[in-house]
């Protein structure tokens, strides 16, 4: 168990040893949760008011960090990713224009509402059921400030479940999901953890939050992964057949008849030659240009997105993977903003 995970457990043990009542503990937890949501709410209001005052924006991506790593089955470094991605987005080694020519310095193109204080909430002994609700509520607070749309920085892939749930509930129906990943993350309950980063899409499909789920870049899949895919009607595109499938995947049209499109990018969808700073290194993946071709040509209204599983603790090549994750965020921004 990691040092980060132990902190919350030890805190609870100390409270129990001090005979703190359950009611008192819950009251304190509720105060911390409400303060956390208030921070997101007020930042979203401020950014939403600015974008509306400037005028002309129909959809404006808004960064929301969810620094959660404890649901990872291997390494917990993705908890440290959001600030590193932000730093790379605004790094002076590149400019602030996207490949499609949109300017990130324009608040109508990109805003930022900060991070959900995940570790502070967990330090108070809040369990994962309530933590997932806090993440969902944070996403909804962003969506309430039209034209803001959540562009979420993970964190491990477990965050996609509460984010997609919030998007679907707020919009009033399912979405189509484009999921780029080396793994399908659709185990029923990986290692006994229903919120495992390897089980996020099982929770999404069980909840009816997606009509179609397209998984692209898959190259590490078990028998259970394939069986779960069949059970939920998932469209799984494995790397071993990518040369055959790429023409279709680079001309996707999604979201018609549902509430829009959700894009989830696990950085390990890329071959580790392009992105070594991930927890699960799986050779034989997509090139960076493969991913951009899929994104740039995607037809559909992207209502929300996430970029997850960047692990700064393994980013040993002079911040290379941070820049890769930042570029993914920049190009997603260009697709969402209008």
Automatic annotation (TrEMBL):
Tell me which InterPro entries the record gives.
Ureohydrolase, Ureohydrolase_dom_sf, Ureohydrolase_Mn_BS
Q: Which family does it belong to?
A: Belongs to the arginase family. Agmatinase subfamily.
Record keywords: Hydrolase, Metal-binding
Where does this protein come from, organism-wise?
Stylosanthes scabra
Q: Which GO terms describe its molecular function?
A: arginase activity
User: Carries keyword Electron transport?
Assistant: no
Q: What is its EC number?
A: 3.5.3.1
Its domain of life?
A: Eukaryota
Identification of the protein by name = Argininosuccinate synthetase
